[in-house]
Hints:
The chain has 2 helices and 15 strands. The protein is mostly beta strands. Residues 1-15 and 205-225 have low confidence and may be disordered.
Amino acid sequence: MRGLICLLLLLPLPAFAGLFIDDFEDGDDFGWRVVRGEWKVEGGAYVSANPIPNAARNLSQVSYTMLQSPWRIKDGAVELSIRFDERAEGGDEALLLYRMEDDENGYALKIWKEGLTIYKIVVGNLITIRMEPSVVKPTVNHVKLELEGMWMKVHLNGVLRMRIGDPEKSRYEEGRIGLGVPKAKFPVRFEEVRVEGEGIYQFRVNMPVEAKGKLPLLWGEIKGR
């Protein structure tokens, strides 16, 4: 058995897609850092509670929180389940921040009554790359963002709605993710966040992180010997 383990260790480890999920059912926000606004976990959702009357043009006007992951996403997929309050009647908005190099530079996907908008964020400024009219439900919406190099594909409620690239040399290639609310009269609820891609793995910030880049089953088997 030791000989087999040594042989496996000598072989190059293949790239594999890992998975991170936070469904907020544990009742805490471990791993998230609130940058602006009021956020709380309640009823199996991460909730932005403070009202924001006007649509934001800069992150300084957005209520948002960043996932303090030990990894950064480059290529892969990010999925969200978002619940808007029925009383908002389509007037509230949500943001998925991604490939954020820091708190003020990266990309954002906005989900709002007009459809979907992708922004490039430069020093906090929201610069529109493209807006795609889509049917956003007044209550629950499922969003999936796929990233591959300069290309970004957005699915809304199971339907591919947008495929767009950022060919600029100044594009952001990898970074962390975040959640935001640029406009809302009522609480916006993020019910689940899923991130999948090479180098992604489940973590909690109050637990030691080990075996980064290792195949999980093999690493556990080696450590147990």
